[in-house]
Amino acid sequence: MRSWWPVRWFAEIGSDPALAVPQAVNLQKQVPLLYGLLLINSLAVAITHRGQAPFMLTVSVPAVLFTISVVRMVHWLRRARLGPPSPALARRQLRTITVLAALMALAYILWSLALAPYGGPLVQAHVGLYISTTVIGCIFCLLILPQAALLVALTVLPAFIYMCIERQELTLVTIGINVALVLGVLLRVLFNTFSYFRNQVLSATLLASQHAELQRLNEENRRLALTDSLTGLPNRRQFHADLDRLTAQEGRAPFAIGVLDLDRFKPINDTYGHQVGDRLLTAIAARLRAMTGPQIMVYRLGGDEFGLIDTDLPSFENTCERLLQQVKAPLHIGEIVLRVGGSLGISRFPEAGTTATDLFDRADYALYHAKHVNGGGMCVFTAALETAVRANRAIERALQASSFEDELSIVLQPIIALDTGHLGGVEVLARWTNPHLGEISATEFIAIAERSTAIHSITRTVFRKGLKAAQCLPAHVALSFNLSVCDLGSATTLAFIRREIELAGIAPGRIWIEVTETAVMRNAEAAAGALQAFRDMGIRIALDDFGTGYSSLGYVQTLPLDKVKIDRSFVRAIDGERGCTMTRAVITLCHTIGLACVAEGVESASQCALLRQAGCEYAQGYLFSHPLPLETLLARCTDPDADWRPALGEITPQTDRGAAAA
């Protein structure tokens, strides 16, 4: 059964915390004024009735009422200094005010009615004026608590009208009716005002709630934007933000950063799929988190690269060594046991730099040195590496400003057919002489050019000059070009090569494209598609530096290849029994799947003889010739049947090496 609506209305006092607290805060300002008004008006009535009414009504009763009023007024003044109440306290205060308002109104109206018969007409009129003005003032003070205001009005108004009618005077009756009408209007205004107050409070509360929710969502979005979704680690953006913050602090204590790159991750990802690769990265991230203390922050920078920031320098390198050991430890992904390694570059603040950019660049360079020079492990950026960085940056600036058509030249390294000794082809090699830096090694400038767009200009220049040289060479001599990983998947480079071959009038079958296993292993599927596009043009494909990667057999089987170039490390070891067996096995494997073999770095007659006996078709190296300018090579090509091989049975390996060096 539903309760009667007035009961529900009074029961709702303070039930809404969003409304109750503002009501209580407002009443903290209004209630002391209410008691002050009540005391002033009541004291005036008591004074005018001195000598007219009994002592009890002019002194004793007022003393009790005034004491209670003063105590309540002091209570509210103290309450105001304590600030906003809690929702529960606000609810209690509102309900207490409502009850006390009715009781205090009843007490004061009974006292007023008791005074009304005493004194002359003016004194009696003062009682009527006192009741009407006081009740109006009290209602105004209770505007934001309509239940209390209504109880006061309902308590006072009937008694006041009764007093006016009981005198049976037209003036008093008229005054009673007038006051009743005024109170009715005031109550209507009170309800309208409270309705507006409530709407404003609830709107403000809703806006505050929406603002808080928006702030929460913004904070959540910011957190997600700074977190790697796969591993849960802070991401690259957070890494650079923290690095910027640390370097911007004045008087910053030394700290270190590290850039960790996983070794052999790409072959695992290609072999087992991205799902296994993702689980591997998640497991590595968990190991890094478990190994680092509160002083070391771990980030995932992207791919298989992680970042470290450590503010506890003395133990950082030891921690990094332990981290690398943890990275190398076997990982069980389902039923698969995986092993990866790690390379780590470290830079220290302020030795390696005082800006975030310098610190990261130097850590990244130390990582490159650890990975490609040290063969993995950890490398700390030092002054020696600083010299190398400056040299590399000088080369990088020179590459950007270089006119390759004028500064780049080519040399041609002969590739010899071992069965006949004839010149079968040449490998086109780039040489760069800068007017400011002088002659720069290809191993230096190619690696730097691959990190910028300069490699594309170098590739085009080498191809143009190589094809021009092909026009001067005998038609049976093939030209082999090295193609960078940056150009391998470039549709622009493919179109350029096709156009230049057509313009030069060179048969595409004379052109070989050499790609390293390191280049194709980054994305074997995409590399296979790009190489097939070259083969569709009639160009033949060779896999360079075979045997130096991690999954050579897999690439040999899946890539569209015509030839394999056996790395010089196999050739150097061929004089030993085990090395000879390994080299023979590689050559046999290639022949089995229909690929020709070219041995690189042949320097001795014994190596040449063993390679020929193993069935290797071609070879190149200092035993036959250093790389030659076109004019010198043409001079040696006057006799197409010339045998480029030395007298294999007449010289020793040691003598051959000396002759080759000479």
Automatic annotation (TrEMBL):
Residues 388-641 form the EAL domain. Residues 253-383 form the GGDEF domain. Keywords: Membrane, Transmembrane, Transmembrane helix. The chain crosses the membrane at residues 32-49, 55-77, 97-118, 130-163, 170-191. Gene3D superfamilies: 3.30.70.270, EAL domain. The keyword Transmembrane applies. PANTHER family: CYCLIC DI-GMP PHOSPHODIESTERASE PDEF, OXYGEN SENSOR PROTEIN DOSP. This is EAL domain-containing protein. The lineage of its organism: Bacteria, Pseudomonadati, Pseudomonadota, Alphaproteobacteria, Sphingomonadales.
